[in-house]
Amino acid sequence: MDAVRGAVFVLAGGLIWVLWRRHRYPGRWTFTFSLRYESERENLAGARRRLRDIKQEAHRQESKAQAELDAHKASYERKVQALEQRIAALHNPGLGDRMDQLGELTLFEHIVLVESADERKSIPLAALDVRFDTGQRIHSVYLTQPDQQVHRAKYPHYPATEEQERRFDEDQVRDFAVRIQNAVARENAFRADLPQQLAQARQELKRARNDTASRDEADARLSQVRARHRDDPRLKEAQEALERARERWQALTGRLPPA
Q1: Fewest beta carbons within 10 Å, which of 2, 10, 74, 133?
Q2: Is residue 11 predicted with pLDDT exceeding 80?
Q3: CA pair distance 259, 255, nearest whole angstrom
């Protein structure tokens, strides 16, 4: 069975080659295969090769110039996009990185997230007043916003009636309150420095948008390469030589071969 398959593949390959050769060198079978017309076939094949080689060389050079232009465009766009994203992040920093969590409070870089059975809300750290207070049964962390709204986070430390209720050590809650205070200090410094950071980022974005020299040079090189190949006298000569070879074949066989 394998031998049969092999023979079939060989026959199929041979048939494809015959059809291809008949297409490339049309006319009677003698013109296509006979050694008598080998020089005529080689003349036509050589003209085709010369034109193909010139076109392939032009394609390689244009592809290289195009790749350089694409690389400069991508670099330009990445730089501009990164600065645009930086400015957007300065305008709207969002939550920021998660820093710590205790009880119902989760501390992020720019906010404190409150998650309890009664509510879920975000409290901005900017200008937030943070105070720790201890009590007989419950430690408290008071978060007072600039508009004087107050949130009290409760941390039970006395044995509760519900056995499953979590209890918190005083030092643990105090340390967490300090971490919030330090985050507030960083946020206030960030907000104070924000106008300067925005101004600097906008200047950098303006310079990046105007910095098109490398991209423009690569674009000009590509245009020059295309123009040089379009006006290449070798291309015109090779095309004319191929047309003459095709006409000679037609005069010989009565059939015009493909280019």
Answers
A1: 2
A2: no
A3: 13
